[in-house]
Structures are given as structure tokens and as C-alpha cells.
Design brief:
single chain, alpha+beta, three-stranded antiparallel sheet, globular
Length: 435
Amino acid sequence: MSRRRGCVARERSAAYRAREEPPPPSVLVGALREAVDALSAADLDDWSAEELGEAALALERAQSQLVAQQARVLTDFERREGPRADACTTAAAWLNFRTRLGAGAVQRRMSRARQLGRMSQLRAAYQAGEVATEHVDAVVRRCGGWRGERIAEHDATLAELARQATPREVAVAVERIIDAVASEGGDNPPPPCDAEDLRELSVRDGFAGLGDLRGTLSPVLRELFLRVRDVYGRADPPDTPSQHRRTPGARFHDAVLDALTVALSAHPGSAVDGVKTHVVLFADLMTLLGRDDLARIRPRLSDSGVVDPEIARHLIATTNPTMRAVLCLGPWMPVSVGRSRRTLPDWLRGASELVHQRCRGPGCTLRFAVTQADHATDFADGGVTALFNDDPLCLRHHGLKHRDGWDITFHTSDGVVRWRSRDGTRTIDVPPPDP
């Protein structure tokens, strides 16, 4: 049966070739799916070891060819503004919306497609299955900013190297090209690196809802951290049970927390409508009352995301007045100021950030801070300024909505933002952040 499906796929493609007509995409992709289905149904026990080895090598080559063709298709799809049909502004946003791959994986695919557009010889070798995806990514990962065009000038050399060398060797060659261009004073090369330029801090998701702080401190910040530890560090009381005693690292953490709380309390810019805002927590009222079974949304911090209900209650109980809690009955807050003003006041915009967290355009991952509050029902048409009528949209999605005539509705019952096309034939539901 599996062999028959493969034969049918080949017969369809052959029929189009006999008529000298290019087969439509549905036939090409259908043939690919049928071939994969036939392979999945094959009994590998019937294959010899030699046949298995040949198949493994053939699949490796075919895998690279498929990824190369996806890059080619995505490039043309974006060039023809195909994502607009799904209210997406870029192919990356469209791919993220339709596949849920995540921003990082999508960005890798689009960076690969863009750089291959500059490097015809590497692209040809990739599409022929002569080089692997790892070889291409060894080039693409180093093509940010000014580097992409300059690396593309060495297309022939890198394509030939990729055919013969390992991805690691290709990466080393690309690094040498970058160093050579920088030493020649190329287009916008990186400035000389001083020790101070190495400073950085990053906060990532950690275990059990905690954050993972990493970084390289400048001498001054390192000294300030150590001074904070000395000034704000407190030893545990002598009668503290051994199992409850904090480690030196935990005491350092608490010292930094105390110092930052004091700094924010003294800073005039930390007040919103006269309320000192250090940490903002969005939670269902039932969570505060200890009825987690009735809460329709999990509590979350504005930047750190979802936290355990017990932690939320602990924060509210122990950090006031440095905590500002925004409570709701149910997951979405239909708060309104009517038509008394056209834009969201600061306090309501803060609540909107906790509700939406990012642009509500399909596939968009831009942070709330760079969005605009768009009236679902225009203010000029009688729309009110309210959370249920104001959806945060980035500049590109805001323009796309008005240019293509999309109608947007925020459903306060489940947090879904529904995009409906001008003619009503296309409906796209953008799910809410994880409740």
C-alpha cells in the first residue's frame, strides 16, 4: 500500500511534465507528503544494513534540501506580502503565529532566508544538498548588522569550503573574514573593545518561576554590589533553626532587594498617579482570598510572568507598600473611563499591560512598551476609552489594521482578540497570554 502511494505521487508529477506544465504547489507538496507517509509505513526489518545506511545518508541530504526550499519559499512569500492575509506584518510574525515555533526559531529561519538571498553560490549548494543546514547556519549566525553584506562578498569561497569542511571550520573562516573587514575599517565596523564594553546584565527564566541573573560587572558596579552586601546584609537571628538559615548567596540576594526598594522609594519617577510602584502584580480576587479553585487567571508579575498563587499572596502580605496589586474578577478587566478622555490614563495603561503583555497582532512578539492603544470602535464613532475597547498594537499592525480594513474585537470572556477581514471572509483569533 505504501509503495502504491509513492507510485501515485510520481505518476501525477510525470503527467504534468508530459504536458510541459509546472505542477501546482498542492501536487508538489502532496507528493512530498505521500513519499514521507510511504517511508513511515515501510517495515525496516525488510531492509538490509546497507540499504539502511544509504537511506540515512539520502535523508540527511533531503533534509538540507527541504530547509533550503523553505527559505526560498519564505523569501518570496514575504516579498509578495503574503502575511497580510493573516493580518501579519512580516513572514517571521506569520510563521510564529501559524506554527508556535517561538521567536528564536522563527528568527533563525528568516535570517537564513535573508542571507541566502545575498549568497547565490551557497544557496545553490544548499538547495542541491551538497551542504548541510549546520554549514549554512555557521555563516548566518555571524551575519548581523554590517557583517551580512561583507560576508556575502566571499560567497564562492565559503560555498566551496562548506562542501569540503565541517561547520566548525566554516565558522572559523567567517570569523576571520569579520576580523579582516574590521581591521580594514569596513562599513560600520565594531569599535575597539575596551574592558568597559564587556559589561552586561541579563535576566532569564529560571527554575520554579525564579529568575536567572547573569552578567559581567564593570569595576564600579561590582564595588557597588559589594557595598550593598555590606550595608544592607543582615545576619539571621541567633535562634533561627538551622533548616531556615539563609545561605550567603540568599543573604546577598535579600540585601540587593532591600537596596533597590530603598532606591525606588526615594526616586521621584517611581510614582504613578501619586502611588509608589515598585512591583505590579495582576491577580484574580479569588487568589487573594485563598480560593485558587475559583480563580480564572493565574497571578503574574508585569515582567516576570506567572507566579505561584502562594507566592503572590506572600508578596502582597510582605512587601506592601512597595507592591501595587491590580485585582480582577475573572481574567480580563472591562475597566472604562468612558469618553472623558481619548487616551488611556497611566493607571489604566498599566492595567492594560498586565492584561495583554505585548502587541495583540497575529504572531507579533513586540513588548507592550512599544505599542499604541488602538480603539476597536473608533473614538470618533462613539467608542469609549476602556480596556475592552483598547487593544495594544505595534506601529506596523496599527497601520495594517487601517490600511486593510480589519475589524478587531477584544473578547473579555476569554481574552481572545479576533481579527475579521473587511469582507468578513477571514477570521483570525489571537489567543491571550498564558492565563
